[in-house]
Every structure is written in C-alpha cells, then in structure tokens.
Amino acid sequence: MTDLSTERVLADLELTRGLTIQMLAIGTLGMLVGWTVFSGLYQLTTGNAVTFQFAPESIGWLATPVNILVLVFLGTAILVPHEWLHGLAIRYYGGEPRYGVGVAHFILPYAYATTDHEFTRNQFIVVLLTPLVVMTLVGIPLMILLDWGWLAIPLTLNAAGAVADIWMTLMLVSYPAHIRIVDHESGVRILGRDSDKPRSLSITSLVWDGLAGAAVALFAVGILLALAGPILLSALGVESITIGTPGTLTYLFAFVNTAEEISISLGPGVLSVGGLLGLLYAFARSYRRSKQVPIDVA
Length: 298
Fold this sequence. Notes:
The chain has a domain at 4-195. The strands form three sheets. Strands 1-6-5-4 form a four-stranded antiparallel sheet. With 298 residues, it is of the alpha+beta class. The chain is 53% helix and 17% strand. The longest helix is centred in the C-terminal third of the chain and has 32 residues, at 204-235. It has eight helices and nine strands. Strand 2 and strand 3 (108-114) form a beta hairpin. The chain crosses the membrane at residues 21-38, 58-80, 124-144, 150-173, 206-228, 262-284. This is DUF3267 domain-containing protein.
C-alpha cells in the first residue's frame, strides 16, 4: 500500500469534450472491426449471414420501424450486463459499486459503474477487462450453438465500448504494481509514491495513430490484393476464389481468371482489415510510448 505521506497524483484522466469526440471516433473504428469479426465468425460456422431483419415481412411497412426499435433495444440493453460485470468485479475487490447513465457534453450517451474504493493496478485491470472477456467468451458459443445471429450486434457494441478499456490497460501495465487507481463517474486518477514519475494520460495519440494506421493499412491491403493477389493466384493455377460473403462487411476479395472472364473485385472487408491493423498499430504505439521514461514535471 502506498505511503500516504509521500503520495502524489501521477495521472488524471477527465472526460472532456475533446476526449468525448475522440472516444466516439475510436469506438466507431472498433465497431467496424468488431462487426466484421463477430458476423464473419457466425457466417463461417453456420453458413448464414447476420441480418437486421427481426420483424416478419408480412406486417408490411411496420417491419422497418420494428427492426429499428429492436436494434436500439439491443444497443441499449447491452449496457446492463456490461456495467453489471464491471460492478461485479468492483464488489469482488471490496468496493460498493454505484451505477448511472449520462450524456457526455451532449455528444456521447454512456453508462458507468464506479465506486469510492481504491484499487491496485492489477485489480483495476481486472475491473476494466471483465465485461469484454466474460461477454465474449459466453456470447460467441451461444451465438453459434443456438444459431442466434442477432448476438453479433451486442457483442460488437460491447467490444467497441471496450476499446478504451484495452487502451487504459496498456497504460496501466507500464506503471509499477504498487500504484493505486481511484475511479469516478467522469474519469480515473492514478496515485503513487512521491518517487514515481507523473505522466499524462491522453487518448489523442491513440485516435490519430488508429486513423493514420487504418488509412495506410487500407491502401496497402488494397494494393496488395489488387496487384499481387491476381499474379500469385494465376501462378498457382487458381481460376476463381472469393474471400468473404458478397453484400456484407466480410466480403474482402474476389478473383476470376477463366477463358470467359477475367475480373478482380474488392469488397468492404478491406475497410475492416484496415481498421483492425490500424487499431493494432495504435495499441502497439501507445504501449511503446507508455514504456518510455517520462519527464519529471515536478
């Protein structure tokens, strides 16, 4: 436990307007990647595509608003188990969770589970990652075994909402294990010894690294598939191949080389691959940056 007589604030993260916009941007990138992963996994294992058609077509024009309402419900309902799992982890470590909802700077609706309890570094990492790990490990088997394709929607939103939790985890592992974390409704505060170096927690670099990495990866993957792909496939004697399901975000690439037709097409899956590589690049850069020796601003 940290000696209170030599305690100092090492970092303080507040949900400002700028941070809210950045969280929305990186969450959107995470949503694109998550949807491709979960819907693609469902298609691969069941042979069926995930659709947003919940209401029977027999009800006519009412089907559209009903489908929209179901989507809104699924997107909202996922917050309940997500925050409950945060709270369950908080309670496991001796805290008393408080739950609430809000709209950050009239931009981003959010829900939270917080407490007055102070956590060690490793305890808070468990609190951060519990919803992502538990809901993914439980949701994927249910989606596949019960043929519940609609579960791809809440699983995607849960993963997109966990992008910031993953980033925070990467930041925390660069700190000594003795630090303590104080959570509150609009951010977190990291406390440590007077000998520890203070640091600035900023998600701005993550956002820019993610967007820049995604753009470069998108261009590189597109060029690779459009130019190198046909050459390699022709050399291997492949006449036709389709990667992904046409008409969905999982559709990546199609190639035909026969006497009757020669064609190449790229699908929206290229965006998903670019987004995934962009996120991985941003996480790697953030972790490497956090491991650098900080400047003592005291």
